[in-house]
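Minutes, project check-in
Item: structure for the 489-residue chain
Input as provided by the requester:
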Amino acid sequence: MERVDLLIKNGDVVFREGTRPANIAISDGKVAAILKPGFEIDAVRVVDAAGKHVLPGLVDPEGHPGHSFPLDIDLETESPAAAAAGVTTWGIQDPSPRMGKKPFVQDTRPEDVVSFHDVMDIAVKTGEENCITDFYFTPQLETDQQAEEVGEYAEKYGVTSYKFYCHAKHPEIAAKLWYVYRSGLATGFDDGVVYKTLENVAKIGPPGIVSFHPENFEIVRVFSQRLMDAGRMDMEAWTDRSPDFVEAHHVRQYAYLAKITKCPMYVQHTTTAESLLAIRQAKEEGVEIYAQSNPVYLCLPAGTWKINVPLRYPETMEILWEAARNGEIDALGSDHVVSHGTRAEMEVPGDVWKTTSGFPSRVEMMLPLMLDEGINKGRITLQRLVEMMCEAPARIFGLYPRKGSLQVGSDGDVVLVDLKRKVTVTNDLVHTRPGWTILEGREMTGWPVMTIRRGEVLTEWPEGEPKALITATSKGQYVPRAPGNRFLF
């Protein structure tokens, strides 16, 4: 074999069928060869992964750079944070006013919600100028026009996944409970828009899919008012205001429409046992439905902090871990949104209603959390982790086997993991722009120590350095999906 660009040697490589020692050769951005241990070839750069596990680069199917701040600024600061966590492909979910169009309007107005034909070229250009990971888009829809144009978006831009923020159907309700206009939504939508979208996405064929954030704010507002009237101001009140069934209600409701239209469905946040039951029932009825959860719902209990969807109680967390083990949870995503300031600026101690929701570093901490709480505590295997964080998102969203897998011809996306590295988390080690993490002071074991995107080392954390170093010298690429073709290189 001719000289390759990069050789990763002496590592334990996590393949779908299991973990075994192997050397990985990467050239021209692709996996060129998988070699037996000890078999070396000439390479421009050699990375010794002795004592480390070699995983495919993570595919994070849910990030929201651009939701509250300009897309270019968010990608510039948050894509390095994502890369430090092992993410090499980022699924960006934004509504049309948040796709990079200038000037940036902080509180979105109905007239700002436009066809994605008006913003997709801008979004791709903004990503390729500012994002160091590769990326794809899952647009958030609101209007009949957008629903009617999804087939055009698929053909012209390779966009085959779409999303609804179901809690924002009625902006006038959502605005009293959450930052709907600041997130780029303004018009709201009805089930007719949802139905049109499901119909038209079904026509795309694989890998067409519609994602849902299920959380019925029409009911949440009732519980919120009752808790306020009762004088509840503690952090756990935020969880109690959005009880488990309001998530499952939307899963059941839209799974039925997915059945009627024969459209694949993706549950964006699966945080409750009731939602898992609703997903099982939908599968029994023949719905192609997938469940995504998030490491914070597995690892952080109610009362830790205020986010939307809220954190759940320990008994629910154990049910989610079991679902992660047995395959009921298909994928994990970060749901990363850039927070609105420092903790001191966001928190009003003792008053959850006045505290600003959302905490930073969700993308940066998702793999460390899973290594610490999942792998090192024996809750899941490395193979299962790779399925949820690499392969399944790539398959579901039409990126596989180019992404999410280590096989010859796949992109040379790799993350090296040190399962023994102990880290006491400090605010100084995070890369996210707000500069703090809810995990400050927590000792964690297991950490990503190098991230490689198409053969380029994006980040590395040598022993003795206080944090991961950002070493990327180039930007990422937009990854279109091919309508009608589920698996592609």
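Outcome recorded: The chain has two domains: 4-53+414-470, 60-396.
No further action items on this chain.
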